[in-house]
Design goal:
By secondary structure, this protein is an alpha+beta fold. The protein is built from 10 helices and 27 strands. InterPro entries: AB_hydrolase_fold, CocE/Ser_esterase, Galactose-bd-like_sf, Xaa-Pro-like_dom, Xaa-Pro_dipept_C, Xaa-Pro_dipeptidyl-ppase/CocE.
Length: 640
């Protein structure tokens, strides 16, 4: 990692003297100094106390990141260019290296220590003569996580938060684990950033070893052990990764305020907050929960923005192999640019926009992108045209949506009518050595083994880790139970939470159940087999069927009721399309694979084939729970 630190504290002119930068070292409560850059419009910022925009990052405080893109028709700005925009708008800007990263002292431990460091940084900034006492936190991804971590410390002086694509409501429920299963993007993230670590920068041999790691090969050699993992050359990273994986219950580890905002919302400041996310981002659940909780608990306004993008890619019209049209980007639709969108919101949040100023116009509480509505053809870039529109509301789920129950049948149908059969079920064999491959979804930092976004589940190819020739549709596998409505006779709008309540049994003492919700486009000239577009997916590990704190193994053959929750989504299913639900027991490498033995996945060496059953009869009516516009009345005119 590049080092920018210098012993000189003198301000450095940038942009021909229109911007000034100086390095400051901010003391933490344990004596560690964290490096930060202060950007101001003059070499003497103390002459003009102003609000401070604070961004804390583990990626290098002067590094350019793709998620900082401002407009779809412009290159990604450098940090000093972004700072110049905000200093011109009468803010001071501070970008800080997180502990153990960049020029900051100490040891980097992902997530867990960011709360106290953030709180200490804010306290220090408030005491500086160039700060007017107000600190606004901003940033994407990890820089959003650290905001929630600081807020959970009950910090004074945090005047507003702009959380983009991050901020844990519960790392156990989304972002680190889901339904008890471990999200393996934690592995690919650690590998990527180990390569850019200070340790690798100081040791060329180590850096080369890390660059040469065969990630795909290691994913086929689980479980990993200390000294026998893709991070074996960097023990500090290996230790925290394996510790994350081993911590499979909801205990003290996952109750750390830095990754458990849900337990500490009472400590969050009563300050304006904006929560931005996207339907193919791994933090959908946290983004929406943070918004809904703070909207309910605080008097200051909270705002929600949900686009159709992948993680931080608000200037792109597509996610995976699906395009949503020019109306999908933030820039040109919600504001001329991401910079202007943020500046307008900061000004409103701090009461700086004057009367009569268009910037003072109230922002809608909720802005969300409803996917769907286009012709389903292939565009010039080879992506399916799905389309969509922006909508506004005052709450989430939207006021027009109501919960509805859709029932599953052993004949593969999804209907509005409860089942009447006295006995009906589907059984399949789940072999952990042959898991269902991941094809898109809410993923970030998954390369080279997985990529986020919307993909056609009918058409796996060589890009898909674990897919095998002849690349048949995923639901052709015998371990995938695929259910669908009849072709819809009218458009159906789904917007809100998604879950499946299943009645299940297994021959194993533990196993997983997964769900995928899909919009199935009918065949056309470009897609003669149709296009099964993934919207959202979820998983549950059955040993947590009663409690995430105290796992309890299954009794083989006994029937249990479980709920598999998937992140919220918003989609228009056009007339002629089908709503489809795929049920299975694996989604790899997005999630670690249950061995079916009852042993924790982080150390189990043996696997067993499980016969898993889903019941769909009058006494055990497995069903899908969704929010539909207009509710249950005539919601699915095309189903029996």
């Amino acid at each position: 990692m590049t080092t920018y630190d210098t012993p000189a504290r003198r301000p450095e002119p940038l942009h021909q003297g229109a911007l000034w930068r100086r390095t400051v070292h901010i003391p933490m409560r344990d004596g560690i100094l964290l490096a930060a850059d202060l950007y101001s419009a003059s070499p003497a910022p103390e002459a003009t106390p102003l609000p401070v925009l604070l961004e804390r990052t583990p990626y290098g405080r002067r590094a350019r990141r793709g998620s900082d893109q401002d407009r779809s028709d412009a290159p990604v700005p450098q940090p000093q260019d972004t700072a110049r925009y905000f200093t011109d708008a009468r803010y001071h800007v501070v970008r800080q290296d997180c502990r153990g990263r960049g020029d900051s002292e100490g040891t980097f431990v992902k997530y867990l220590g960011e709360g106290p460091d953030g709180a200490d940084t804010i306290a220090w900034l408030r005491d500086q003569p160039w700060c007017d006492g107000r600190v606004v936190m901003t940033g994407v991804s990890y820089s959003a996580h650290v905001q929630a971590a600081a807020a959970a410390e009950g910090v004074t002086g945090l005047a507003a938060m702009f959380q983009d694509s991050g901020g844990f409501s519960s790392g156990y429920d989304a972002g680190m684990r889901m339904g008890g299963a471990f999200e393996l993007k934690q592995v690919t993230w650690a590998l990527r950033h180990a390569t850019n670590s200070p340790e690798a920068a100081a040791d060329g041999v180590l850096a080369e070893e890390l660059r040469r790691v065969d990630v795909a090969g290691w994913f086929g050699a689980m479980p990993w052990r200390p000294g026998c993992s893709p991070l074996r050359h960097l023990p500090a990273y290996e230790d925290f990764l394996l510790e994350q994986w081993r911590q499979d219950t909801f205990g003290d580890y996952y109750r750390n305020p830095a990754i458990y905002g849900r337990g500490f919302y009472d400590r969050f400041p009563d300050a304006p907050s904006l929560h931005m996310g996207s339907w193919y981002d791994p933090y959908v659940r946290s983004t929406i929960e943070n918004f809904t909780a703070l909207q309910e608990l605080k008097s200051a306004p909270a705002y929600l923005v949900m686009g159709p993008w992948t993680h931080g890619h608000r200037c792109e019209t597509y996610a995976g192999d699906v395009d949503f049209g020019p109306q999908a980007t933030l820039d040109g639709n919600l504001a001329p640019s991401y910079l202007e969108f943020r500046r307008r919101w900061f000004d409103r949040a701090l009461g700086r926009a004057g009367a009569g100023n268009p910037d003072d116009e109230e922002m809608p509480t909720v802005q969300y992108f409803l996917m769907g509505g286009s012709d389903g053809g292939r565009d010039a870039a080879g992506r399916m045209r799905h389309g969509g529109v922006w909508r506004t509301d005052t709450q989430w789920p939207p006021t027009s949506a109501e919960p509805i129950t859709l029932y599953l049948t052993a004949d593969g149908e999804i209907t509005t009518a409860p089942p009447t059969a006295s006995s009906a079920s589907v059984t399949y064999d789940f072999d952990p050595r042959n898991p269902v491959p991941t094809m898109g979804g809410q993923i970030t930092s998954g390369e080279p083994v997985m990529t986020g976004g919307a993909y056609d589940q009918n058409a796996p190819d060589a890009r898909v880790y674990g897919a095998r020739e002849p690349y048949l549709p995923l639901n052709s596998r015998p371990d995938v139970v695929s259910l669908a409505t009849a072709p819809l006779e009218r458009d159906v709008v789904l917007a809100g939470p998604v879950s499946a309540r299943l009645y299940i049994s297994s021959t194993a003492p533990d196993t997983d159940f997964t769900v995928k919700l899909l919009d199935v486009h009918p065949p056309n000239d470009d897609y003669p087999h149709g296009f099964a577009m993934l919207l959202t997916d979820g998983i549950v590990r059955c040993r947590f069927h009663r409690s995430n704190e105290r796992p309890e193994l299954l009794t083989p053959g006994e029937i249990y009721e479980i709920e598999v929750t998937a992140p919220d989504t918003a989609n228009l299913f056009a007339a002629g399309h089908r709503i489809r639900l795929d049920i299975s027991s694996s989604n790899f490498p997005r999630f670690d694979v249950n061995t079916n033995t009852g042993e924790p996945e982080a150390r189990a060496r043996r696997t067993a084939v499980a016969a898993n059953t889903v019941y769909m009869d009058a006494e055990r009516p497995s069903h899908l729970l969704v929010w539909l516009e207009g509710g249950a009345e005539d919601a699915l005119a095309g189903t029996p």
